[in-house]
């Protein structure tokens, strides 16, 4: 009984000392951190402005392997949103882009758990030739009196996270630069022949109006839908699925409505719970192909060249395959590999 009293007295003393010390800790904290990455602003900013990209290399998310994500339109810039959680919902929260000034400034709001007060994270981008300087301004949420001790370690946590994230981003951009160099060596507007391997695609079947504005906007939306599902619901990393492919009947490309399948290659068939998604098998075989870059609506001349080549060689053709070598964005040019399966 005596020991119990002693333990209680010591506990009250420690609690009292802790409570008094919290009077000297601010309820929230603001701090600044600077970092630098050896890539130009046009390569760096899109990795921050798109939350699907951001969650891949940011160590806050990438270091927790069992996190799943849900992304909401628009998928980049002002108004973008993302939810994250682990299997047991022990770790969960939301991220929003509240301000976006291209190549200059971004503001994020990060809500952790059920806390209604967010972290405010402002990132300023300063181009320095082939390098980019980043200035991070972080403001922590207001904390209850007894939680203020967390503010004593928050800065160290964020600085460590930022430094690890910059290393992840540098490696990611290095891989993208290798890909860009390969794309730069592509010879456009020349018809070539190859024997293509078979592939298994997971994606969505779509019908939409075939107008210049509506068709490509619909493709961009379904690209986000498919990639989001594969990344967040299926937990696949970028190196675990292939280049997005659009399949359509070339004979219908001038109709008022067009139907297409949009999907990404996966190595094997897996269980899919969402009925909006289905698998499509591409058979191995001979294809004529041509590379195209420019406005998506102007690709038709390249498609016609493929069809003329097949007709000249007295070959029958299958569905047109449009591979997006770079992620499609509204009001931006595309890089496509247009392939036409041919057979006797």
Give a description of the structure:
The protein has 344 residues and is α+β, with helices and mostly antiparallel strands. The chain has 2 domains: 24-184, START domain (Alpha-D-Glucose-1,6-Bisphosphate, Chain A, domain 4, 2-Layer Sandwich), CATH 3.30.530.20; 192-343, Regulatory factor, effector binding domain (Multidrug-efflux Transporter 1 Regulator Bmrr, Chain A, Alpha-Beta Barrel), CATH 3.20.80. Helix content is 32%, strand content 34%. The protein contains 7 helices and 16 strands. Residues 13-22 have low confidence and may be disordered. InterPro entries: Reg_factor_effector_dom_sf, START-like_dom_sf. This is Polyketide cyclase.
- For the terminal residues, how far apart are their CA atoms? 95 Å
Would you report the number of β strands?
Answer: 16
Radius of gyration over alpha carbons?
26 Å
Under the CATH scheme, which architecture of the largest domain would be assigned? 2-Layer Sandwich
**Domain tally:** 2
Return the string of H and E elements: HEHHHEEEEEEHEEHEEEEHEEE
Indicate the CATH topology of the largest domain.
Answer: Alpha-D-Glucose-1,6-Bisphosphate, Chain A, domain 4
In one word, what is the shape?
elongated
Average pLDDT taken over every residue: 85
CATH C-level of the largest domain: Alpha Beta
The parts where pLDDT drops under 50 for at least 5 residues are 13-22
**What does the largest sheet look like?**
9 strands, antiparallel
- Total helices: the number is 7
The quaternary organization reads as single chain
CATH superfamily membership of the largest domain, which one?
Answer: START domain
């Amino acid at each position: 009984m005596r020991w119990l009293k002693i333990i209680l007295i010591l506990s009250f003393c420690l609690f009292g000392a802790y409570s008094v010390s919290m009077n000297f800790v601010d309820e929230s904290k603001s701090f600044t951190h600077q970092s630098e990455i050896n890539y130009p602003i046009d390569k760096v900013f899109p990795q921050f402005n798109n939350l699907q990209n951001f969650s891949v290399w940011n160590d806050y998310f990438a270091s927790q392997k069992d996190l799943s994500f849900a992304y909401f339109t628009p998928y980049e810039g002002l108004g973008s949103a993302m939810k994250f959680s682990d299997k047991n919902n022990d770790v969960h929260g939301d991220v929003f882009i509240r301000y976006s000034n291209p190549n200059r400034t971004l503001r994020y709001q990060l809500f952790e758990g059920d806390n209604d007060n967010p972290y405010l994270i402002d990132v300023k981008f300063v181009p320095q030739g082939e390098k980019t300087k980043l200035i991070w301004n972080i403001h922590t949420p207001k904390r209850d009196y007894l939680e203020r001790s967390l503010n004593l370690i928050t800065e160290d946590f964020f600085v460590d996270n930022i430094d690890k994230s910059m290393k992840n981003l540098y490696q990611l951009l290095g891989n993208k630069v290798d890909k860009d160099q390969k794309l730069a060596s592509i010879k456009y507007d020349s018809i070539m022949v190859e024997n293509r391997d078979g592939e298994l695609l997971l994606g969505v079947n779509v019908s939409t109006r075939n107008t210049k504005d509506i068709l490509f906007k619909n493709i961009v939306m379904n690209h986000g839908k498919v990639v989001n599902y594969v990344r967040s619901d299926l937990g696949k990393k970028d190196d675990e699925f292939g280049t997005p492919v659009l399949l359509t009947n070339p004979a219908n490309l001038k109709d008022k409505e067009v139907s297409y399948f949009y999907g990404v290659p996966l190595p094997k068939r897996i269980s899919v719970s969402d009925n909006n998604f289905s698998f499509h098998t591409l058979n191995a075989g001979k294809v004529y192909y041509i590379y195209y870059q420019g406005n998506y609506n102007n690709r038709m001349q390249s498609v016609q060249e493929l069809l003329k080549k097949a007709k000249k060689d007295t070959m029958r053709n299958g569905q047109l395959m449009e591979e997006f070598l770079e992620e499609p964005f509204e009001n931006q040019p595309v890089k496509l590999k247009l392939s036409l399966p041919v057979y006797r």
